[in-house]
Structures are given as structure tokens and as C-alpha cells.
Target: Iron-siderophore ABC transporter substrate-binding protein
Amino acid sequence: MTTTSRTIITRRLAASALLAAAAVALSACGAGASAEPDATTASDGAYPVTIPHAFGETEITEHPERIVVVGYKEQDYYLALGEVPVAIRDWYGDMPSATWPWAQEYLDGEEPVVLPRAELDFEQIVELDPDVIVGMSAGLTEEEYDTLSAIAPTVAQPSADDGWAVTWQDMTLKAGAILGKTAEAEALVDELEAEITAVAATYPELDGASTVFASGWEGQYYVYSPATTASQLLLELGLVMSDEVAELTDNENQYVTLSQERFDLLDVDVAVWSEAADDEIMVSLLQNPLYADLPVHTEGRDVFLGKDANGAFVFSSVLSLPYVIDTIVPALATAVDGDPATTSAFSAPED
Model:
């Protein structure tokens, strides 16, 4: 984490604490804090709270001490609000405690149990004795939800259609509702939205520029839906995705396998790849004239993230977004100028 990122987060959390204190003071004077209407029916810090989701709604009657995260990228929201989950589900990257670099310090020396990435081990979850189970980014089936709900109150994805595309704002507000920290969560959202708006204004060249978010794996290439978390961030910055990409990725998985004959979909103002340029799959791509001869590459308009940067980008959480703002957004602006002489740490190597 950069010094700038840490400063941004520290300032944001300090502002959150002040707002939370203000909410308590207002409550003492008889003016209850307003709750986020879709997330909770109670005032800030009060229980019970009711969380609606794809399979109904879940009532939480008291502050949960033992939080089990079965979603793939939800731990950041609880860590940002001062709560360390007792268990975190692994996603990728082999990170200690399944927690990425930008969030490690928020563990405060604790070591949560790491749940397997593959199928949920329900017996393991029972042994954790959770007070609440959260799986907003797990793509839970109704059967999985029913099994988890028999263990502890469980919060699933907001609707059956967006198990992989929950916004960071919704993640933050729902975490705040579950923890009784609505005012702090709202402050996190407000400040981070303001920062994204400010950085977008700093780079007006991104406004209206066309983009795709893509990746490669085992010899195949993929383009992702505008609804996915990483794509949503690109859109928040003012970039746009084509209707054709939206239509092709309008499916349960929210991505489409891209044949070489459709590499034309990659020829945009700035193409964002999840892998680093020296990853084997990207080396193969850059040697393929069907891609290498496209203007998106010859004009240096492709960006190659690599593990840490891609993790920050696809998490797009209240803890990872400062890294994205500091590091990746300037690289997007460098790429979109179409001048191959201007490069960043995420540019392809010279041919």
C-alpha cells in the first residue's frame, strides 16, 4: 500500500468515526440517524436489522461477534469498519489469511481461518460457530443459502441475477447495517465516491473513451460484462463499453469466450487486461498478429495489470480503491492518449 493510499484510508476512517459520534449525539437528543432504506429497518447501531437479498430477508438481532465471510471479496468491508472476520473464503493469489496487501494491516495481528475456494465445507462452518454468515459475492444457490441459514443468519447476494456484480457501495452499506455502523459505512461511501469523481475530473481524457476488461486463461481469452465489479469502476471513471459487449456477456457467468476472429472487440481506446504482459498467456497474445497488429496495441492503448493490481481492481473495495486511484487510473490516462512513446508500469514491453 502506498503512503498516499494509507493517508486516504486513515482520513476516511477518521471522518467515519466523527459521523458515527454525531449520529449517537443526535440519537441522544431524540433525532434518530437515518438508515439506508434497502439495507436495514433500524437506526444506526440499533438492532434488530433486516437485510433483504435474493432469497428473502435476514434479521440480525444483535451485534455479530463472529463473522464468517463466504463471499470471495467481502472481507475488506468488515476490516474497514473495524471488525476482523473469524473466517475468510479464499479467492486467488495465495494471500496470508486470504487478505490482500492493502488490507493486511487491518487484521491487527489476527489470523482468520481460510475457507476453501471450491465447494463450501458446511461442517467447517458449523465448527466456527458464526453469529452471521455473509455471501454477497459468492453466487450462492438457494440450496447453499438454506444450508447456511440453518447454521446462522445468512446474507446472500441482492438478487438472483447479480451474484458476481454487487457494487462496492452496496457491499459497504450492507456491512454497515450488519455491524450497526450505518453512519460510518455511509461516510466511507460518500468520501470514496467523491474521490472517484475528483480523479475522473483530473483525467477528462477518460470521459467517453471506449474500453473492455479482458483476461486470458489456458489458451482462451475472455471479455467481461459491464455489470462486473471491475467494469463498473471503469464506467464510474467515465469510460464506456459497447452495446455488443454488453449483449454478448449478458449471461449467468457475465463473460464471453473471445475467438480470435472477434479480436476486433478489443480494438478500443483502452483495453484493460487482468494479467501482466509477461505472463505466458499474454506473451502468446502479443505474438499473435491478429491482436498485435490492432491499433489498440500498436498505439500503446492496452494496459496489463498483473496479480496485485488486478486484485485491487476486481476487488474494487473501500480498501483497494485508493491503490487503484493512485496507480492504475494514471496508467489508463497514459494509455488512452494513443501515443506509444508514453508508457506506464502496466504497458506492454516494446516489440
The longest strand covers residues 211-217.
